[in-house]
Design brief:
The structure holds two protein chains of two kinds. Chain A is mainly α. Chain A contains six helices and no strands. Chain B has one domain: Rossmann fold. In chain B, helix 3 packs across helix 4, helix 3 packs parallel to helix 6 and helix 4 crosses helix 6. The longest helix of chain B has 14 residues. The radius of gyration of chain B is 18 Å and the shape is globular. The chains are: A mainly alpha, B alpha/beta.
Chain lengths: 235, 251
């Protein structure tokens, strides 16, 4: 944080601590997503199990952040930038926690999938997920840098993820149609694809919160959207 | 609607300049809070609005202060009439060493507002009701005002201020000597009073400024650094100094 230090050092410490926990929580999510994707694309069950197990850590961070935010509001009555830091931390923790859950869900499905997935589906998943991973990283960087332009970049690139998701969905549908035996794997893959896309949406939410944190105003306008989803009918 | 318009106001105590070029619009029927560290000039500015600085020999005021478009710094301004229009409540409750009734009837008496005893009784009752004190004191109107609790005394001072139906009420740290319950009562009162009066309150409590006011002005070293809606000032002030002050970062 580039602001001058507070006169009351313990208050300064509490805000720094909150900020540090969000960063740690963000890295934990980044790691979970990375491992979940690696698990599904390289068929690594150890990674998948690690993601499932480590989700608890992310949940604990959320509870900790919530507790710190409530304490700050009750005991310090933060104002202006401090208020925005506090409120943003609370909202970010909730989106990050969802990202953790979605990564966990991907891993659970990974354990149920057939060992030999068609290469084109794996490639397609890698394309969407690498974009989402990049997006999550950029979001956390925007938070670290308190950068509104970086947040806007993330916000705008969600569109691309939507498009890649739809392409991936189409391939999974094709795979489903090919053979009745593909039904189970195909269904899991649809959910996995959707989960990855949802993670992208959560990072976009976070990007909006970072913009508010830095600027004190809300990002105006509709979120850029890609092609309409074909399968799920909802967005 | 703008009730008070201060234009390029400078105040000097002898050679020392206390306020620099203050221009500030005060909206009618709103509460405006003036905040800033000690010695920043907020009380000095408040005292400009009813020419209270006149009583300090070495104090001189330059610039215009228009109330209802009339410059109160003009030579022709009748200061007694001005202070009838602009009431004031101070930090420490300061009831007169007289009865409750006399405290409230004092203003209407010297300004010749009431025509009869009955009319005066009505003014006293209405003022005490508006100050949310009537129920607590209606049976002891002829007891000394100094016998009330601190919070009651402050409400008595508010009743005294509003007894002459001022258009503007200036409050200089009206709650700093009160407990949280009495403070909440005064704040509730302020909220109600703004329907009929324009209120300007100087406070050191940021939380109080945020709670009671619609507009806030931040003073620092004799300058008005920022003025705007309270909501904006406390969520996203434009000026770095304002932010440093309200977030407790002033060194």
């Amino acid at each position: 944080m580039s602001e001058a230090a507070h006169t009351v050092k313990s208050y300064e410490e509490e805000l720094k601590n909150l900020n540090a926990n969000i960063i740690k929580m963000g890295s934990a999510c980044e790691e979970a997503l990375g491992k979940a994707i690696q698990a599904i694309t390289t068929r690594n069950s150890d990674f998948a199990e690690a993601v499932i197990k480590d989700d608890e850590k992310i949940d604990k961070y959320e509870a900790l952040v919530e507790q710190q935010v409530v304490n700050l509001i009750a005991l310090r009555q933060p104002m202006a930038i401090d208020l925005r830091e506090t409120v943003t931390a609370l909202k970010m923790s909730s989106d990050l926690e969802r990202i953790g859950d979605l990564a966990k869900n991907i891993s659970k499905r990974t354990l149920l999938l057939n060992e030999n997935l068609p290469k084109n589906l794996v490639d397609s998943l890698i394309r969407v997920s690498s974009n989402v991973q990049k997006q999550l990283k950029s979001t956390l960087d925007a938070y670290l840098e308190r950068s509104a332009p970086m947040a806007v970049n993330v916000w705008e690139s969600d569109e691309q993820i939507d498009d890649l998701t739809n392409l991936c969905m189409q391939e999974v549908i094709k795979y489903l149609k090919e053979n009745e035996k593909n039904l189970e794997d195909g269904t899991h893959l649809l959910f996995v694809t959707k989960n990855i896309e949802r993670i992208g949406d959560h990072t976009t939410n976070i990007a909006e919160q970072i913009f508010y944190l830095v600027k004190g105003e809300y990002l105006e306008g509709d979120r850029p959207k890609g092609t309409e989803p074909i399968v799920t009918g909802e967005k | 609607m703008i009730k008070i318009k201060a234009k390029d106001v400078d105040v000097f105590y002898g050679k020392k300049q206390a306020l620099f070029n203050i221009s500030l619009d005060i909206e009618e029927n709103q509460v405006t809070a003036l905040i800033g560290p000690s010695g920043c000039g907020k009380s000095t500015f408040l005292r400009c609005l009813n020419r209270m600085n006149d009583v300090i020999d070495i104090c001189s005021v330059k610039g215009e202060i228009l109330i209802n478009d009339f410059n109160i710094n003009d030579k022709g301004c009748d200061v007694v009439r001005l202070r009838e229009k602009i009431g004031m409540v101070f930090q420490k409750p300061n009831p007169f060493p007289k009865t409750l009734y006399e405290n409230v009837s004092y203003g209407p008496t010297i300004h010749g507002i009431a025509q009869s005893k009955q009319e005066m009784d009505e003014i006293v009752e209405t003022s005490l009701k508006k100050a949310a004190l009537w129920e607590e004191v209606k049976d002891r109107l002829h007891e000394p005002g100094t016998g009330l609790s601190g919070g009651q005394q402050q409400r008595l001072c508010i009743a005294r201020a509003i007894s002459v139906s001022p258009e503007v009420i200036l409050m200089d740290e009206p709650c700093s000597a009160l407990d949280p319950i009495a403070t909440a009562q005064i704040e509730e009162l302020i909220d109600g009073l703004k329907k009929e009066h324009t209120i300007i309150i100087v406070t050191h409590s940021m939380a109080q400024a945020a709670r009671v006011s619609q507009n806030t002005g931040f003073f620092h070293l004799g300058q008005l650094i920022e003025h705007g809606s309270t909501d904006k000032i406390f969520k996203n002030p434009d000026n770095k100094k304002t932010q440093d002050y309200i977030t407790g970062r002033f060194g």
